[in-house]
Amino acid sequence: TWRWQMVGSANLARGEHTFKMGPGGEGGRFDSLIVTDDAEYVPTGTGVPTPEPTAGPGNGTFAVHVSDIDQPVIVKATATGMSSGSVFRLTYDNDKLTLDDIALQRFEKITQPGDYGNLTVSSVQPGRVTFGINTDIPEGSTWSGLLSIFKFMPGSLGESEITLEVL
User: Fold this and answer.
1) If you average pLDDT over residues 95-118, what whole number do you get?
2) Which long-range contacts (CB under 8 A, 24 or more apart) does 101-109 make?
3) Model-level pTM?
């Protein structure tokens, strides 16, 4: 059964923040995360159940609550246990969010397919970005870390979802 549970609150300054989540107790699973600047906001429904990962860690759907149309939505995509050749897809509601930068961690703005150092963006379509990491990982080893930092500009107030999956 899916349900919303408040696990903490913090007064955050403007800027980038990293949230780290673990599996919780035995049998615990993480489904959705809501970050909002509206202290009175109460989520409704039971979240959006995500299917069991089929390609390893990294899959997840996150709820985004926008209460300020002028503030960008920053998404830091990370993964653990990846091997050479791993490919990822980030999907979002193109009617509610406009992709502004695929790799905010780089000096230049990236919005098109191409090779950008250790990041290869293979496809950019409305609502979907497919990308991979160009990191040589020795056979039998895995890689964990930052995939990319995405920047979106809100197109409307309210909730939206962003999903990261391993292909």
Assistant:
1) 87
2) 101/149, 101/150, 101/151, 102/129, 102/131, 102/148, 102/150, 103/148, 103/149, 104/74, 104/148, 104/149, 104/150, 104/151, 105/146, 105/148, 105/149
3) 0.62
User: For the segment 107-152, what is each residue's pLDDT rounded down to a tens digit?
Assistant: 788 999 999 888 899 999 999 999 988 877 777 777 777 778 888 8
Give the separation between CA 92 and CA 114, rounded to whole angstroms.
20
DSSP conformational letter for 156: S
Q: State the DSSP code for 25.
A: S
d(CA 49, CA 62): 11
